[in-house]
Amino acid sequence: MDLCESVFKYEERAVYELRSLYRRYGYLPYKMSKFEEYDLYVRNKDFLISDNIITFTDTDGKLMALKPDVTLSIIKNTGDTAGGVHKVCYDENVYRITKGAGGFRELMQVGLECIGDIDSYGIYEVLMLAAESLSRISEEYVLDISHLGILSEIIDASGVSESTKGELLKKIGEKNMHEIDALCNAEGCDPSAIKKLVSLYGAPSEVLPEIKGMLTGDSGDEFNEFESILMLLCKNGYKDNIRIDFSVVNDMNYYNGVVFKGFVRGIASGVLSGGQYDKLMQKMGRSACAIGFAVYMDMLERFNTGADEYDVDAMLLYDDGCDINALSDAVKLFSAGGKSVMVQKVIPDKIKYKQLLKINERGVEILENNE
Q1: What is the pLDDT of residues 57-104, one digit of tens each?
Q2: Could you tell me if 169 and 200 lie in one domain?
Q3: The model's pTM
Q4: Where does a domain end: 302, 320, 345?
Q5: Burial code of 328-354, b = ≥16 C-beta within 10 A, e = fewer?
């Protein structure tokens, strides 16, 4: 058992693993303030997962906010580099309301952003690191990938109006075929192509030919790039863990191109989310392109892992009058072997241990063994 495994809890080990992974690919650590001007968030509320924001008035009278999002802060504080790419990674707390929490929570996010002259390799690298991130959490994972450019072409070809697109995207994300029918029929549009695209799900080798047959020549470049990136992922060992799923959608006012969501067995909701957000960059007055993702560490609290079944390996009890030299020697013996040991006179509430031990004049006695 290495130091990382023996000292850190599961979520802490995951943060360490992910941060180390991103550093190996040249993503530099990015630290930011806990708060930004409220105006940054209110102008981009639709981009945020939740529009509930904690605010306060600074000493100079400015309305500030505890950051509910990391990406917006990075965009604001990162300049453009002609022909180059800013590669940053982070592990930061955000402050927002989550489902079932009943109030605001401080949540850890780990992720990366790639900002600048983004090409096919840049998109591939981010998708590859998203898949690798999931693999660090669980061997049983899937990365669902979509492409908003391709989806947009199919929607436009159906004749759906701009005013209906937002609601249609919501129903596509829910795979609600009945409501997709209803929205299209209300506008006199044929929903068959949209429904077919949304119903497609599977490995790239199975789904890509189906998509290609649905497209016109206008989207050839986008499709070819999408295909080449997915085939490279398959070639490099991710074939069994990536799936095409056009129900993965984000707001088209902010996102474009590739969008994706990651899942691990044992957690119903996605633990990773990301995509290209060139339109957000443009909205914020930036000329660069961008792609990134975040891993939601709060979701891992629900992940049932045997690694955290116990708080300590050994609970060592002693009485008043115990020989502290013998007690110290016993603790040294356990810790030198890589085990964690908690020394107490009485067992604290809610502490889980593998072994319950007691030191007395005869030495260390095992009272309970759960190994």
Answers
A1: 888 888 988 888 888 888 888 877 777 899 999 998 888 776 655 677
A2: yes
A3: 0.80
A4: 302
A5: eebbeebeeeeeebbbeeeeeeeeebb
